[in-house]
């Protein structure tokens, strides 16, 4: 019995230390992403999708990247329309979004640039809410109108500036993204 308890503690410790990682998934369960979004005069086309899982079987989120029609992969971070859409499979506190965003930003952007954007970062991060299974966030940048955050299709906040979008989308698409495999999947590189 003692050996069983030690084994359980060891397995739990290993499980808790394993980071999130990503598997491919264009359609997850009954949920699929549309091929494109028409937002005003802009058509954003689906580039790729990915699925974040823990320990091979616990689904966390599925995500999709849309970019302005005709935009090459290597220009996804340029001043073009883009959208990251995420569907949650579990409860995720808003603080987790903020913490993960700050970590990814620190790994991709010089500290001075982050501090220049700090008021707008705070504005966006304060708009995050706790997610429940089935909730969907969308972060859309359009050159004419800035970065828009939606929760389940309801607008939450709009942040001005191409400089903000260029930095914030590095969370998923930068040199050190939050999940490398997810970045490849979102860009259609699989």
Overall CATH architecture: 3-Layer(bba) Sandwich
Largest sheet: 8 strands, antiparallel
Termini gap: 45 Å
- Average pLDDT taken over every residue: 82
Oligomer: single chain
Using the coordinates shown, work out and report the CATH topology: Chalcone isomerase
The helix/strand series, from N terminus to C terminus, equals HEEEEEEEHHEEEHHH
Shape: globular
Strand content: 25-35%
DSSP summary: helix tally:
6
Q: What is the radius of gyration?
A: 18 Å
Structural class: alpha+beta
The number of E-state strands comes to 10
Task: Tell me the layout of helices and strands.
Layout: H1 2-17, E1 21-23, E2 27-28, E3 31-32, E4 36-39, E5 42-54, E6 58-68, E7 82-88, H2 94-108, H3 111-127, E8 136-142, E9 146-151, E10 154-159, H4 162-168, H5 170-173, H6 180-186
Antiparallel strand pairs: 1-5, 2-3, 4-5, 5-6, 6-7, 7-8, 8-9, 9-10
Verbal overview:
35% of the residues lie in helices and 32% in strands. It is of the alpha+beta class. The chain has one domain: Chalcone isomerase (3-Layer(bba) Sandwich), CATH 3.50.70. Strands 1, 4, 5, 6, 7, 8, 9 and 10 form an 8-stranded antiparallel sheet that branches.
